[in-house]
Design brief:
The protein starts with 28 loop residues before the first strand and ends in a 5-residue tail after the last strand. It has a 25-stranded parallel β-sheet that branches. The protein contains no helices and 25 strands. The chain has strands at 29-39, 44-47, 49-52, 56-59, 64-70, 73-76, 81-86, 89-91, 123-125, 137-138, 141-144, 149-152, 155-159, 161-164, 169-172, 176-180, 184-186, 191-194, 203-207, 214-218, 223-224, 227-237, 242-244, 247-254, 259-261. It is elongated, with a radius of gyration of 18 Å. It is mainly β.
């Protein structure tokens, strides 16, 4: 059976942040960090806002943010565009000014912790192989080899870890929620996404990985069609990767030329 990936074109942009009078929820953001967020040169947030609760948002040269940016400190390089800035301090070209900032930017009491109870059975798909659809359940380590394909039948999944080799694919045939204890790696040019006719709102990925660790990594030119929620660990998006879904982490780094589009409803 042939699977088609749909990642963009149907996404609806959230409205920019209003003049802040109370902290919005995390759902208002396409990229949100509990500590600090960095958008690399030429990175784009095509739909949604960018924010950080306690630290700094760094916007490298040529960054484009369709919505607003909110953080205690915002460092702005040349040729940055955003609809509005909300901060206490802005560092960069004089033409930028900050609107009033409500602190905390997001009430962390509204953010649930991620707790995962994985299973013992490992899932391994060899290179260039395609596995039969995997039913919902608790599993150990999941590994998909180069050009391999793992299809999830849909429902709730728990994994100890999840790793896609370069050009591998993990597809959800029906709405699915993935909970991962140790961490997720999506290799270069690999795909983690729903299958058509589903859109990115059908896939949610929760990562438990502890503090001072990187819980989610999407490498160069990877394609991710899922919301990523990793409040206890770091989220790293590689250069020229594409993400259709909101990103939330303790820290968030979006690489050079990468694009993030938050799906409506995530």
């Amino acid at each position: 059976m042939r699977w088609w990936i749909v990642l963009a074109g149907f996404l609806v942009a959230p409205s920019p942040l209003p003049a802040q009078q109370a902290p919005p929820t995390a759902a208002a953001y396409a990229v949100f960090a509990l500590e600090s967020a960095t958008l690399g040169p030429g990175a784009r947030v095509d739909a949604g806002n960018v924010g950080a609760n306690r630290g700094t948002v760094r916007l490298a040269p040529g960054v484009r943010v369709a919505g607003s940016v909110a953080a205690n400190t915002i460092r702005v390089a040349p040729r940055v565009r955003a609809s509005a800035l909300f901060c206490r301090l802005v560092i960069g070209p004089r033409r930028f000014a900050c609107g009033g900032l409500f602190v905390p930017v997001v009430d962390v009491g509204t953010l649930p912790l991620v707790q995962v109870v994985p299973g013992a059975l490992d899932v391994r798909v060899p290179a260039r192989a395609a596995a039969t659809p995997l039913p919902a359940g608790a599993y150990g380590h999941a590994r998909v080899g180069t050009r391999g394909t793992l299809v999830l039948a849909g429902g709730d999944y728990a994994f100890r870890s999840l790793a896609l080799a370069p050009t591998a694919r993990l597809l959800c045939a029906a709405p699915c929620r993935l909970r991962v204890e140790d961490g997720v790696v999506v290799g270069a040019r690999a795909i983690l996404a729903p299958a058509a006719p589903l859109d990115a709102t059908a896939v949610r990925l929760d990562v438990e990985a502890g503090a001072r660790r990187t819980g989610f990594v999407a490498r160069t030119r990877a394609v991710v069609g899922a919301g990523v929620y990793a409040p206890q660990s770091g989220v790293v998006i590689g250069s020229r990767a594409r993400v259709a879904g909101a990103l939330l982490g303790r820290t968030v780094v979006v690489g050079a030329g990468a694009r993030v589009t938050a799906a409506s409803g995530q």
